[in-house]
Amino acid sequence: MKLKKILKIIAGVIVFFTLPSLLFFGFVYFKYNEDLPLATPSKQADILAYKMLISLNADAYKATNHIEWTFRGKHHYNWNKKDNLVEVYWKDNKVELDLNNPSNTIAYINNSQIDNEDSTTLIQTAITYFNNDSFWLVAPYKVFDQGTTRSIVKHNNKDALLVTYTSGGSTPGDSYLWILDENYKPTTFKMWVDILPIGGLEATWSDWKTTDTGAQLPTHHKLFFFGLDMGEVKTSL
What we know:
Mean pLDDT: 89
Number of strands: 16
Structural class: alpha+beta
Strand order of the largest sheet: 6-5-4-3-2-1-16
Radius of gyration: 21 Å
Shape: globular
Number of helices: 4
Low-confidence stretches: 19-25
Helix content: 25-40%
Order of helices and strands: HHHEEEEEEHEEEEEEEEEE
Largest sheet: 7 strands, antiparallel
């Protein structure tokens, strides 16, 4: 078979598999992409944020010392929130993160402790996983974190809360527009985040569970066509 014909076949295969994806992305982008709303931080936005926290019984969350959950059936967490220690499990890996004293962090493969280049990679992976996956669990309680700003944006003629993270986490600069119900409880948020090429994508925050400590935490999200399951969420004092 001549080289020219082989290249044509390869090119045809690439187009066959990539063209539908490109068309789908283009459709989604033009249908859903939104610019980040222009808004100014204000005391009124702080008040709205406090109302959201009150609706979720934030005091119960603050008093909760331990949280356990599994993100999308892949990453399992046992978080000692009081002491800022996290056990992260995925595949054959385990990392015991000490977020206050990173030098005390320990990595394991197949239950054997390692201390080499692989451990550095595993530790950084565990931190990235935790920053992302814990946000999907406790994001509403982080609206007053250091480095955040809060603004009010009109959404369907109602006040919505725009929170921007100017520092911290894995992707500083991300913004989230919280949509609240009549009791100021979150129902969805829209995202403008570095890892997504489309701005304003919406995810649900409706599957809430009142845990054993009284803290309200989500058990499932829906993002576009995809479900983000949080597993069996458990808390203790």
